[in-house]
Amino acid sequence: MQHLTQEGLLISIRNRGLFVIKIMSDADMAFYEHLVALTGSRSPVRIHTTLMIETRMCLTVLQDSYRFTDEWIGEHRVIAEAVRGGDGPLAQTRLNDHEDAVLARQTGAPASVSVDTRRTRS
Question: 55 and 76 share a domain?
Answer without folding.
Answer: no
